[in-house]
Amino acid sequence: MSSTARRGHPALVNGDGGYEREEEDEDEEGYGAEPEEEPRLKYQRLGGSVPAILSTDAAAAIAVTDRAVLLGTHDGTLHILDFQGNESKQIAAHTATINDISFEDREYIGSCSDDGTVVISNLFTDDKIKFEYHRPMKAIALDPDYSRNYKRFATGGLAGQVLVLTKKTWGGGYNKKVLREGEGPIHSMKWRADLLAWANDAGVKVHDMKTDRGIAFIERPKGIPRPEVLLPHLVWQDDTVLVIGWGTSVKIAAIRTESQGLNGMQRSISAPSSDKYVDIVGSFQTGYHISGIAPFGDLLVMLAYIPEEDDKDKKISTSAPLRQGTAQRPEIHLVSWKNDVVTTDALPIHGYEHYKAKDYTLAHAPFSGSSNAGGQWAAGDEPLYYIVSPKDIVVAKPRDTEDHIAWLLQHGWHEKALAAVEEGQGRTELLNEVGSRYLDHLIIERKYAEAAQLCPKILRGSPSAWERWVFHFAHLRQLFVLIPYIPIDNPQLSDTAYEVALVALTTNATFHELLLTTIKSWPPALYSASPVISAIEPQLSSSSMTDPLKEALAELYVINSQYEKALSLYAELLKPEVFEFIEKHNLHDAIHDKVVNLMILDSKRAIHLLIQHHDIIPPFEVVEQLLHTSKSCDKKYLLHQYLHALFETDIHAGKDYHDMQLELYADYEPRMLIPFLRTSQHYRLDKAYEIFSLRELVREQVFVLGRMGNAKEALSTIINKLEDIQEAVEFVTDQHDDELWEELIKQCLQKPEMVGMLLEHTVGNLDPLYIVNLVPDGLEIPKLRDRLVKIVTDYRTETSLRNGCNDILKTDCVNLLVKYYQEARRGVCMATMDEEAQGTTRADEGSSRIGERSSTSLRSLEIKSRTRCGARCCLCFDPLSIQDISIIVFYCCHAYHQSCLEGGLDSMKSTARDSDEDSEDDDGSPSAESKMRCVLCTTAAA
Question: pLDDT digit string (tens) for 719-735?
Fold first, then answer.
């Protein structure tokens, strides 16, 4: 037999709904420990009229119907109670103690008493039937179909007879039948369906009322007290299972037919002719006296009476009564059919110290439907158990989900309680209660993070609950753990709650990162930024001002449309998005004092911004800020980048800083010096030369010397420092100064190795022979032979090229002269006046068709125009066709009268005489004065 430790007595709910505890603690030793397992039953003291009834009387018997609770007392009164204990009817049935009560499903109640009477009462009327037997009657059982089956019932008592009474069908009265007698008093009796079971001193018998045959006898357990001390208890679990509790023995008997049977099970004694028999399917012994027994699904509810300590090691006495005033609390044991104890509860019954085992009674309400061994029944279908003592009645019933949750909370298992509520096992209203208690528990335990994490699950969509806990966390100065879970919609809280949360994060530097994250994630419409800004601004000049707090303040400024203040903080924090921020909000006027920060952040983008808006931010502001900044940065390099970009954009914009720019170029980008020197006109030459001299930038020195007009020194610098003859030659060539050539040769003669180089690079500029003649005798020139050979070779190549070019030129001249001669031999067409007029008309007509002529005919027209002379003299403009006057026509197609031409030439003689006097042709021909020329062409040439 397995068992568990006994529990301390549970809290009882009194009739008014409040909880009460027994004040006596003297017997609590050993029961004070917290239970390890949850109980299956909960207990409530029956209130209503019961306390008043029991204050003047004592409970003796009880029966529970599906309509009412039937309570019999020692004075013989039958009280009809509702399930809250309120009395609805009182029946004066007997004059002595009522020993047993039985009911029929509809309206009839049977009771028996020590006064020797049996009374059948009506639940709804005052009708009742009394039967006199003159001996104490201990048990009664109404036929389950009492009203339809001739109002049959069975009863028994100290006379030892089992009587069955049936109403006569005619003449009135009842037929009485004795089922069994002579085996001692009848102590208990239960009727279910067609089966009647009773217990007497010999044991328990089961009788089939349908066939009127006994089907089983179960012997009384050995070694148990007399029935007067420990009464037997019978209960039908269903129509075929009878549970027997007697003394310390429990037996479960299954009623079967011949076709049924359980292999290996013990078969009890059965009548030979019966078609039914009983199998004992369960049997065990207990360590306590059984004061009542009832089914609980697949388990059994046992009302246990604990024997006195000094009797535990002794054989149970069958005669000596228990000493009063020292009894222990009765207990409810929930056990399986194998006596595996599921739970044990000690009951705080009023006056339990003075009661014996037989003073307690256990009754249960009839229940239907499928039962659950786990103790979970459908609403309204759970069984009720009534534990009756003379002065107290306690109702036990299976614990529901709310009880389970309450038990979990009582033992500090808040998380399990919350899970049970979330599973929907309990009322929705429980969530707030359980959640609040869980949160309170976590707060007491200072588990603030866990409490905050649970808030969304517990508080859900209640704005008031959320705000209450926001302020509570704020009071505890733990709001930072709750902020990540505060909802921003569904529900949306008041703006004050959000503002309180944000302000709380400004007080500690460790919260500033969370503050920034929260401001970025929360929609600005949830709160007013002004209270938060007011909380932060006093910290700007203090050591508590961190970068996250600055950025948070900048975000709040943006929300408040204070863009310039936000820009100052973004620039100070070197935020990359500051450039987009400037463009988005057109804050170019606000960056005057932020040049250095912008340059440090991103010099390329900053320079582009500054140059693009150099009319707003002039160069002198940029330069001054960069020169005088105390920030850790390479300010000279940043200044170089800015001035270089400014120069490439506008060469005159930064002219005041070109001297500075020379030095910056020299330090960071020397390759840009020459282009800068050639382009700019705004630097001082002496300053430039000083800079280049200090940094030994020779080519730049040469350029500046050239600009200064000191060409000889520049040339000397090239020769002596660069030793680059080619560059020296290029320099001299660019200067177009013959004296420099002499200076070049002079300085080169001082260095023999340069003479040869000079010979190589002056070809085409100087005569190499001239240089060779200047070389002193005995001067050793490296590689002179090779260089002379190269010079000669180059000269020969040049000469060959010139000869070839001359040959080509001569050939071209001959070809052109031949062409000229052929053209000159062609005749010239002389037209008359009529032909001229016709030609003019045709020309006008032809001019309208010029666009339609092909390009292949243009050449022929051109030739014709050149070989056709006009019909008039080019000097007198008279027609050429005048008799006796000679006509002279030139190759240029100009025609003259001879007399006109000679007259025109006379006017040219004086000029020709001045220009051609004493001149002759190469072949010794006379002067041009005697030649005939075209006046128009000659005049145009002159």
Answer: 777 766 667 777 777 77
